[in-house]
Please model this.
Amino acid sequence: MKLGIFGGTFDPPHIGHQILAAEAMEQLNLDLVLWVLTHYPPHKKEQKITPLADRIRMVELTIGDNSRFILSRVDIDRDPPHYALDTVLLLKEKYSHDDLYYLLGKDSLNDLPEWHLPSEFVSACNGIAVMNRRGQRKIQAKLLNEIPGLEKKLLFLETPFIEISSSEIRDRIRRYKEYKYFLPEKVYRYIQRKNLYRS
Model:
């Protein structure tokens, strides 16, 4: 099988996440997309993060009844730090006969040299799928030189430009601005019921 690894804090998950996961599934002909919820992201140590139980429930509500979207507990059930390399290696153990494609945004790709053991991470993946705007496939030569083997692993997904972020949604909620249509309906109702992101 071909599996996509879609990682994030999902704080909260929004319609942009749904669209990107669906586009990756279609364009890469993936059998499953693993939503890898990161418990303690190393690069967000200073950010206040919503309790894990709430984020798990919101991802479950986002996935809904789509049998090809799976909530992975690979980062939930282990101690931090949660580096992408370790995540991929653990998933390779679990799905030893399958191909793993890591889904990345263009900004994350540019930050790849700052990741933990980036060359080893690239080597561990069968492919790295970059989600970016249509027609924008140019990669910095410096990036390719810094991480040997990266160019051979890159795949480009032509995804809609979705200018929605979890941080913007949290900010809108704090400032009592409209946010309902940025989210799956059930996630919106959950946030309202639990009064998340207000303080």
About this structure: The beta strands are 2-8, 32-37, 69-72, 99-105, 127-133, 154-159. The chain has a mean pLDDT of 91. The first strand starts at residue 2 and ends at 8. The two ends are 43 Å apart (CA to CA).
